[in-house]
Amino acid sequence: MKRHFIILAAALLAAIAVSCGTRGQEQVYPARPAYLQPGDTVGIMTVSSPVTDRPGETDTLIDIVKSWGVNVKLGENVFKLEAPPFSVTDKERAEEFMRMIKDDNIKAIVFYRGGYGAIRTLEYLDFEEIKKHPKWIVGFSDVTTYHLALQGAGLESIHGPMLSSYWLKKRPDTAALSVGDALFGRVDGYHIKPHPYNRLGEASGKIVGGNMTLISIAEGTPYDMPVDDNTIIFIEEIGESMNAIDGMMQQLKKSGKLAKAKAVLVGNFTNIDDKEDPWNVTPQDLIKRYTDELQVPVVFGFPAGHGRPHLAIYMGREVKLSVRADGVDITF
């Protein structure tokens, strides 16, 4: 009886290992898509604002993706403008995303641009199907909406630059290169220079978050930012007022999310307007007032979000964070 149980258990474990699948020597976990291999195909599409780049610019940006050693499948709706202010209807954009998800020849989806509109497509997505066909989803800004939803479903994704934020001429483009490295599993971590506002310490947890406006929009919905006692919160923003930044920090505080964070990563804050009700401080000064209330490590100048430097990071993944006087190490 005991021997039969052992044999049965071994067979079950073997079956599970086979069902997880392997690529090379890498085991593919249900929550982590397989890293890309040379010659794999990357889908490019948009679920947010439509693409308005000129054809020559578009070709250049697509060639940057191809330079990673991959093939490209361009979404059929990328250049349409049939449902202003979007390329096509919310349902059609979601359906195109699901077609790419179900296409097992496509190993990753890199969004062309952000803008607005991703949240309008969520109700048409099938997350059970997405779990059955895990692949890397890459983007930032408005794509924060998708990151939050994927994190809520227990799936990893890549917060990183999209085609519209790649440099057209200047090389090397560290932002674009970091996306390619992340897709191929070559990003083990980053060393970040020290910042006077950092709070020293060590922590581990899963990174969640992204653009503050999109985090705020998701509050109270089924796609709210998932925060528990094993969470590192990452925030970044562009083009908002100081009043708005404070309001969103108030939301994070009053919702209890900040209090649960094991660490906070403060990314790029670009073109923040201080004309209305001037605060006469920087966004970092304002955010520090909130993080000073926390007894956890805090990193300012984290190299991600609108602006440069902008490096790709794995969202929903357990990471280790060490904040020291001589700099910061984050290990994925």
Please describe what this structure looks like.
This protein has 332 residues and is of the alpha/beta class. The chain has 2 domains: 29-183, Murein tetrapeptidase LD-carboxypeptidase, N-terminal domain (Rossmann fold, 3-Layer(aba) Sandwich), CATH 3.40.50.10740; 189-331, 3-Layer(bba) Sandwich (Glucose Oxidase, domain 1), CATH 3.50.30.60. The protein contains 10 helices and 15 strands. The protein has helices at 2-20, 55-66, 90-102, 127-132, 144-152, 174-183, 212-218, 242-254, 257-260, 283-291; strands at residues 22-23, 26-27, 41-45, 71-74, 106-111, 136-139, 157-159, 189-192, 201-211, 231-238, 263-270, 298-300, 313-315, 318-324, 327-331. It has a 7-stranded mixed beta sheet with strand order 8-15-14-9-10-11-12. It has a 6-stranded mixed beta sheet with strand order 4-3-5-6-7-13, sandwiched between helices. The model is unreliable at 1-29 (pLDDT under 50).
